[in-house]
Design a protein that fits this description.
Strand content: 15-25%
Largest sheet: 8 strands, parallel, barrel
Shape: globular
Radius of gyration: 19 Å
Helix content: 25-40%
Structural class: alpha/beta
Distance between the termini: 31 Å
Order of helices and strands: EEEHEHEEEEEHEHHHEHEHEHEHH
Number of helices: 11
Length: 354
């Protein structure tokens, strides 16, 4: 019987345990969206995770949403990421790079005046944090049909760059109201071309990206994250169950390393058992995320409801989270005021268990 501490094969990557470090934006990259030594230390400290999935990483310039998130679109960034992957591998860890485009969840102030883009000219109903303070999200420019292949190619190149940087694979970010999710869900996508309207059309961009990335580096090194219930960034869909069922079926034949599903909504507005839908229609490895205790995670794996669990906040303040779970040690609380603060505080200064 499998549990949190049994090994698992995700595509080409053998994991020592099923405790995954979820992707967590921490806004610690240097100017120019450059990974740095502090990031290498941070990820190395957490190398006992079965798999580390990095923070959302820009596939191209001009779509910054967090000021200091990293990129993977030039040689300098590739070289800087190598120091991170080498640090993790030196501790026998495994690490995937999450590749991402912010779409309408960006702002011109963060991108040298460049207007955000999205599937349709619909703004997020919220504010974004910028160096000039909180500002309303802007109405994005609706992408032209002929622009879509270029963005797909940017994901393809980002995946290639990730492998050159030493990553074990990539996770395509299709969640949380960023560009791929914007195309998927009807609240943000009111297009009338081949990328809008029916579920099949709204899923086209996602599947084009998955296919391009898989063609470039091999599907066994590719994962995908989805958040079918999450209302973050003004997201909802008229048929959540139907959309997830269609996407899960379409992905099932693509031999990915895994499908990573967020089971809940940040704001608790939308509900439903999305994991059961994914399990029914997707035949590969299923990673679940959001709000799991160790005991709940272990039970879900033992009953074959899921194959692994991604822990987020727990890994922020407990770099040795697998050790603490295995030995039933108390978990250190996370200081939310330092999540995006910049600097070492609340980032690389959490101690391991004594």
């Amino acid at each position: 019987m499998s549990d949190l501490f049994s090994s698992i094969q995700l595509g080409n990557t053998q994991l020592a345990n099923r405790i995954i470090m979820a992707p967590l934006t921490r806004a610690r990259a240097s100017d120019g969206h450059m990974p740095n030594q502090m990031m290498a230390t941070y990820y190395q400290q957490r190398a006992s995770a079965g798999l580390i999935i990095t923070e959302a990483t820009m596939i191209t310039a001009g779509n910054s949403a967090f000021v200091n998130e990293p990129g993977i679109y030039n040689q300098e960034q590739i070289s800087a990421w190598k120091k991170v992957t080498e640090a993790v591998h030196a501790k026998n860890g495994k690490i995937y790079l999450q590749i991402w485009h912010g779409g309408r969840a960006t702002h011109s102030v963060l991108n040298d005046g460049q207007q955000p883009v999205g599937p349709s000219a619909i703004a997020i109903d919220d504010v974004i944090h910028t160096p000039q303070g909180k500002m309303p999200y802007e109405v994005p420019r609706a992408l032209r049909t002929d622009e879509m292949p270029g963005i797909v190619d940017a994901f393809r190149q980002a995946a290639r760059n990730a492998i050159l940087a030493g990553f074990d694979g990539v996770e395509v970010h299709g969640a949380n109201g960023y560009l791929i999710d914007q195309f998927l869900r009807s609240s943000a996508n009111i297009r009338s071309d081949k990328y809008g309207g029916s579920i099949e059309n709204r899923a086209r961009f996602l599947l084009d990206v998955v296919d391009a990335v898989s063609d470039e580096i091999g599907s066994a090194k590719v994962g995908l994250r989805l958040s079918p219930l999450n209302s973050f960034n003004s997201m909802q869909d008229e048929d959540t169950r139907g959309l997830l069922a269609f996407v899960s079926k379409a992905l099932s034949s693509r031999n990915l390393a895994y499908l990573h599903v967020m089971r809940a909504d940040f704001f608790d507005k939308q509900h439903g058992d999305v994991l059961a839908i994914a399990r029914e229609h997707y035949s590969g490895n299923l990673i679940a995320n959001m709000g799991y205790t160790a005991s709940e995670a272990s039970q879900a794996i033992k009953t074959n409801s899921i194959d692994a669990v991604a822990f987020g906040t727990g890994f922020i303040s407990n770099p040795d989270l697998p050790l603490r779970i295995e030995n039933n040690l108390e978990l250190a609380p996370a200081d939310q005021s330092t999540f995006y603060l910049g600097g070492a505080e609340g980032y690389i200064d959490y101690p391991v268990a004594s």
